[in-house]
Design brief:
Helix content: under 10%
Largest sheet: 22 strands, antiparallel, barrel
Low-confidence stretches: 12-19, 102-107
Structural class: mainly beta
Distance between the termini: 68 Å
Number of helices: 6
Oligomer: single chain
Radius of gyration: 28 Å
Strand content: over 45%
Shape: globular
Length: 728
């Protein structure tokens, strides 16, 4: 009898010991659409009443989870809640993907704010372009990011040269030099390199765009008077990614893009390469190219190191070689012959490095260090004139971020240097060096559940132009019925240099250097106010609207004026450049359909000229419509854009015009095929007025106010050897 009792006791002890066994586990959460780690998602064990939040790598960690089956709930604002049963211990990696829900923008965390807050909890107004829309624009134009920016409300891509295609971005009617271009938070392509910058940034390795309109100088320093565009790169994941895109146009343009990424526990890598060749293209047969002959190669490798779950170190290089020659088709193809002698050739080489160290100090604070060095070499040649120079920029920054339940703080300091060195043989030496030190602090405070206040202050000191205090303030109101509103404003400044749109237009010929003793830095102030509302009109129809009003004024604007001896010199304007306007964005959703409507009123006045005229080459009225259908197999998009009348510098009023585009893409398991009809109604400036004026051997090029290349038809293939997210 005692033997039986002893056996029963042993069995009970064994069962209790087995039941008491526990495991330490990690659960990884990714986004279904982009396959990217989802930071801030909640993973909850229902029976255990135990939960955790995913970290920067999308991982939630648990200790002492009893072995056996458990019901877990994974949730994140803007995504559909996911419930499942898991077995502990598990032979497989515990990895789950969340699908975006009805209001995906609420869940987006934006890098340009330097905060880990989602869109819905940031007082600064930010426009977000995600991976899906970026993919559509990459198909429409795989060579550069101009398509992404051009179709955003209130943004204009201003072409400054027919022969080279040089293009600048204009936000709310203000010149390109007032917009700060960033990549992963690094200032890019300022000064000498800005004229060709938009043409030299391919979109395939980008994950998202973040656009802030209005002064953003408090966070990013000088140059962000009109706003900033931050391009966020794709990062490697444990699942390998390989995208190959091949595109061919009827205008004899060929493009190949390749992106690969992969990471393991300690290391990750991403590799991006792009090659583009364009034959000189003359659609109206006037003997001059509308697209220059172009050979462009880009390469961007990055190496990531993860010494712990809390720390990331990565280093990247970006190299671009670009050679473009436009002008007289006969000279381009056969060489100079009699009257066939005008060409414009741009040969440029770009190399930049990026180094980032990020570490989580504790549960509420983090530290980040950044450094970049950029080198740009450009040789611009037209008949009887050559402009040749090199520019080296450096950027170093350290920031500290801490967050409590109701308050976020970001404090930091940086050093920015720029050194332009013109060829020593040039008759006018326009070398310029600038050194700027900066320190800043930014605070976001939850006054209540409905009101959030953001305040910031930057102090910059430039060794030549002095001290710039830059305060900003924004206030957000939101409620649970889908309504929110933001109002904010701040100050900005821009250090003067010779690289303006006016100087680019005349190829910098006879342009004098900046006289730092007589020319002051440009200064600005601006205010934005917007209203947002989103709701569901029915179970299947979603609706949202955003209405923005803005004002930006620039004092001491930099002007290029002629002198008595045929040269050009820079001077400060005697009155303001004053830009005001409104933007309306409306979105409807129905099952697999999305319909976007937008309108922009841009009223930019030059108050330093008699009569306060409208800024040349700025359409006062712009509107657009984009209808998208997307299923697992198909993606179809139809676009219509209206550009209103503009004024040329001589006061002549231009005609308005409408452009249309159509994209059709079919998804398969291992990739996609697509056709794109860009500007298929063939609207181009030569249909309204000449693009080139005689004499043929020394032509005059009027200002550009409409598309120059006209209808472009392209076909392409996207290959995804590791599988496509959308397939049959």
């Amino acid at each position: 009898m005692n033997k039986y009792i002893l056996s029963i006791k042993l069995i009970l002890i064994l069962c209790l010991s087995l039941q008491a066994q526990t495991s330490d586990i990690q659960i990884k959460v990714l986004t279904e659409a982009e396959n990217e780690p989802l930071m801030g998602a909640t993973v909850y064990f229902e029976a255990l009443e135990k939960g955790a939040v995913t970290n920067f790598d999308g991982i939630a960690e648990f200790t002492e989870i009893p072995d056996g089956q458990h019901q877990i709930i994974i949730s994140f604002l803007g995504f559909e809640t996911f419930e499942t049963t898991i077995q502990i211990p598990s032979n497989n990696e515990l990895m789950f993907k969340l699908k975006e829900g009805g209001n995906q923008l609420d869940a987006v965390v934006l890098q340009s704010t330097r905060s880990t807050r989602t869109v819905r909890k940031i007082p600064t107004r930010i426009e977000f372009i995600g991976a899906e829309e970026l993919g559509e624009k990459a198909i429409m134009n795989p060579t550069n990011i101009s398509m992404v920016l051009r179709e955003s409300t209130g943004i204009q891509m201003q072409q400054t040269s027919l022969s080279s295609g040089s293009t600048n971005i204009r936000i709310q009617g203000l010149d390109g030099r007032y917009t700060q271009l960033l990549r992963d938070g690094f200032p890019l392509y300022g000064g000498f390199s800005s004229g060709l910058s938009i043409l030299q940034i391919p979109p395939l390795d980008l994950q998202q765009f973040e656009i802030i309109k209005g002064s953003s100088s408090t966070l990013y320093g000088g140059g962000a008077i009109a706003g900033l565009v931050n391009m966020v790169s794709k990062t490697p994941d444990e699942e390998p990614a390989l995208d190959i895109m091949l595109t061919q146009t009827q205008a004899l343009g060929s493009t190949a893009n390749v992106f690969y990424s992969k990471r393991n526990e300690k290391f990750g890598v991403s590799l991006y390469g792009s090659g583009h060749y364009q034959k000189a293209y003359d659609p109206e047969d006037d003997g001059f190219s509308n697209l220059p002959k172009t050979t462009s190669i880009s390469f961007n490798p990055k190496l990531f190191y993860y010494p712990s779950d809390k720390t990331t170190l990565w280093f990247g290089l970006n190299g671009t070689y670009d050679d473009r020659i436009g002008g007289d088709i006969t000279k381009i193809e056969n060489g100079e012959d009699g009257i066939h002698q005008y060409t414009e050739e741009n040969n440029s080489k770009r190399l930049s490095s990026q180094l980032v160290y990020q570490t989580q100090l504790d549960s509420i604070s983090s530290l980040e260090f950044k450094n970049s060095v950029s080198f740009f070499d450009r040789n611009l040649t037209v008949p009887d004139f050559n402009f040749d120079g090199k520019q080296t920029n450096t950027f170093t920054e350290i920031t500290y971020n801490t967050a409590s339940e109701k308050t976020d703080w970001i404090v930091g300091a940086n050093l920015y240097t720029s050194n332009f060195d013109e060829n020593d043989n040039a008759p006018l030496q326009r070398d310029q060096k600038d050194v700027t030190f900066g320190a800043f602090a930014n605070n976001i405070f939850d006054i209540s559940d409905n009101w959030i206040l953001e305040t910031g202050l930057r102090a910059d000191y430039n060794t030549d132009f002095g001290f710039f205090p830059l305060p900003r303030i924004s206030l957000l109101y939101k409620n649970n019925s889908g309504f929110s509103s933001r109002i904010g404003g701040g100050l900005g400044y821009k250090i003067p240099d010779i690289f303006t749109e006016e100087a680019e237009y005349i190829n910098f010929e006879n342009v004098l250097a900046i006289n730092k003793s007589t020319v002051d830095a440009e200064r600005s102030y601006g205010v934005n106010f917007d209203l947002n509302y989103q709701t569901r009109l029915s179970d299947e129809i979603g609706f949202s609207i955003n209405q923005l009003f803005y004002v930006t004024a620039i004092n001491d604007g930099l002007l290029l004026n002629s002198t008595d001896n045929g040269l050009f010199q820079f001077e400060n304007a005697t009155d303001e450049i004053f830009s005001k306007g409104a933007e309306t964005n409306i979105k409807f959703t129905y099952k697999d359909f999305r319909w976007f409507l937008n309108y922009a009123l841009i009223d930019t006045k030059l108050n330093y000229l008699p009569g306060n005229p409208q800024k040349p080459l700025t359409a006062k009225h712009n509107a657009g419509s984009v209808l998208m259908y997307e299923s697992e197999k198909w993606r179809i998009g139809y676009e219509t854009f209206y550009t209103g009348k503009q004024f040329l510098s001589n006061g002549t009023e231009t005609t308005d015009f409408v452009t249309m585009g159509l994209l059709v893409m079919r998804n398969f398991k291992l990739g996609s095929v697509f056709v794109n009809f860009e500007n298929f109604t063939d609207r181009r400036q030569s249909r309204f007025s000449p693009l080139v004026l005689p004499p043929h051997e020394n032509p005059v090029f009027p200002e550009i106010y409409a598309p120059t290349d006209g209808f472009i038809f392209s076909v392409g293939l996207i290959i995804k050897p590791f599988g496509n997210e959308h397939h049959d």
